[in-house]
Design goal:
UDP-N-acetylmuramoyl-L-alanine:D-glutamate ligase; Rossmann fold; 6-stranded mixed beta sheet; 17 helices; 9-stranded mixed beta sheet; alpha/beta; Protein-Tyrosine Phosphatase, Chain A
């Protein structure tokens, strides 16, 4: 990896080495910020209003590593001593603007000078340390598949760095862990999945290609409005290098109408405009977006993928027509464009949304300078992804799959694409994580497609049992055959007990993302002995 150890003062002298820095919030923003600031030679205290026992197990494990590196943890205790101690402060962006801790810090600032470190500072430090061309992938659904498909394509010609939820590596934490380990690995580029929470911490990084897959409502309890959620995800455009390119889903009603006129943008899609409904509001494409990359003549092969023709119209690339390089070092960048062409594509991943993910990947590789023949070969050899319609086993002619779909839109896209010989039996872990989801609607959607539904009441993230959450899903589904269990293992046991030849069992839920191995082990433990 190309990076230079950061040994100078941070950004116009706002934070100096050996400064006493208070980091507020032990979540996905505070932990990596604390680790980076500690690595730079500062004294760091990390505080949170929650006690250690109230935190998720993953957070506990990571905090133990931070503590062993010399960071002082103050969890669930009176913060005043740490506030008085601090010479500088970083406040996690998810801390409410009205939080009591902010008021306590404001009062302390009246007594003495306390420097503020923000997310842009963290991002700019990272940008100075990690020097390589970057692809970033944002959006609601399809981020992980698209990120990993792009990585697969670049892995044919480069030595790329990958951070995605599939590898259980949030971008900022992953980058900082790599930096503090002083790992000497010569990566050529990076492919980064940028969820809405992570994207706030990447301010200051520069990316060459920014992908946005779609913008359907999710995690809405973290936002004041759907508009705020949209703007958070679209902030990926603010990370673009001056010669960078956006790749966005032109069928999405939000993205197709977003004001992106000031950016080089590649629109992809199936020319099938979508509709989003949220809180009695209906969002539609007022007119079809002119697509730069189009899939049509689609042949749906159900569980075995699809075939389609891809039309590529004139699209921008990152290549300079003068020096023929990416990251042009000419004094005047002259963008090269790719002209119209067509090819047939065959992918093994099922469902329409994987065609969309494929188009996003093709757009990214073409923007990078790949020819269409090479891009086609790359996406066609991307055959499977763990936790994404992953086949676990076949038992007595019954196929058992697992998939990470867990919000209403991703569940509908998946189930709508399945063609099953017998019955569709769905097992579901509790749809809630730390995020509370619309379980009634999730149940209603599953009820449209499934013949049998078995819901586990266990929240795989918090490890708590919530029978009310499971009941809410069942109330929405209203199937003739539906059941509640206390965990995934019992749900799968029940599914296998009632399944007959030709049926398909699929387990879904956020546990497949957040606790992949535990959920898979529960499924395997439910299988009958050989």
């Amino acid at each position: 990896m190309h990076y230079n150890k950061y040994t100078c003062n941070l950004l116009d002298d706002r934070m100096k080495m050996h400064t006493k820095i208070l980091v507020v919030g032990a979540g996905n923003a505070g932990r990596p910020a604390a680790q980076l600031l500690n690595y730079l030679g500062n004294e760091v205290r990390l505080i949170d209003q929650k006690s250690y026992s109230e935190l998720p197990q993953k957070a506990k494990n990571q905090l133990a590593d931070l503590e062993s590196s010399g960071i002082i943890l103050e969890l669930g205790v009176d913060p005043q001593d740490s506030i008085s101690w601090a010479e500088a402060v970083f406040i996690s962006p998810n801390i409410s603007k009205n939080a009591e801790i902010r008021e306590l810090i404001r009062k302390e600032k009246k007594k003495k000078d306390i420097k503020e470190i923000n997310t842009a500072d963290i991002g700019q430090i990272l940008n100075s340390l990690v020097q390589m061309p970057i692809v970033g992938v944002a959006g609601t659904d399809g981020k992980t598949t698209t990120t990993n498909m792009i990585f697969h394509c670049f892995n044919q010609a480069y030595n790329p760095l990958l951070f995605s939820s599939l590898q259980n590596s949030l971008v900022i934490e992953g980058l900082i862990r790599l930096i503090v380990s002083d790992t000497e690995i010569d990566f050529d580029m990076a492919v980064l999945e940028l969820p809405h929470g992570t994207i706030r911490m990447t301010e200051g990084l520069e990316i060459l290609v920014g992908v946005v897959t779609n913008l359907t409502p999710d995690h809405m309890e973290e936002f004041d409005s759907y508009s705020d959620y949209i703007q958070r995800n679209l902030s990926i455009k603010d990370l673009l290098h001056e010669n960078g390119i956006l790749v966005v889903n032109g069928d999405d009603p939000i993205l197709s109408q977003a004001d992106l006129d000031n950016y080089e943008t590649i629109y992809y899609g199936l020319n099938q405009p979508k509709t989003i409904e949220y809180k009695d509001e209906v969002y539609k494409n007022t007119e079809k977006k002119e697509l730069n990359i189009l899939a049509h003549q689609i042949k749906d092969k159900g569980l075995y993928g699809s075939e389609f023709e891809v039309k590529v119209f004139k699209i921008p690339t990152l290549i300079c027509g003068n020096c023929m390089k990416i990251n042009c070092d000419c004094s005047t960048f002259k963008r090269q464009y790719m002209e119209n062409q067509t090819t047939k594509i065959e992918i093994s991943l099922p469902s329409i949304f994987n065609i969309e993910n494929t188009l996003a990947t093709i757009a990214t590789t073409l923007a990078w300078g790949y020819d269409l023949k090479t891009a086609k070969a790359c996406v066609e050899t991307f055959t499977k992804l763990k936790g994404r319609f992953e086949k676990i086993i076949t038992v007595d002619n019954v196929d058992v799959y697992m998939d990470a779909a867990h919000n209403p839109d991703s569940i509908e896209m998946l189930l709508n694409s399945l063609k099953v010989e017998g019955r569709l039996i769905v097992t579901l872990d509790n749809p809630d994580t730390l995020t509370i989801r619309d379980k009634l609607r999730i149940g209603q959607i599953i009820g449209k497609y499934a013949d049998v539904l078995i819901v586990s009441a266990k929240n795989e993230t918090t490890k708590t049992i919530d029978t009310n959450a499971a009941k809410e899903v069942l109330d929405g589904a209203k199937l003739d055959e539906q059941h509640m269990t206390m965990d995934v293992k019992e749900a799968m046991k029940q599914a296998l007990k009632i399944a007959v030849k030709g049926d398909l069992i699929i387990h879904m839920g956020p546990g497949v993302v957040n606790e992949y191995q535990n959920v898979k082990n529960d499924i395997l433990r439910a299988l009958p002995p050989l």
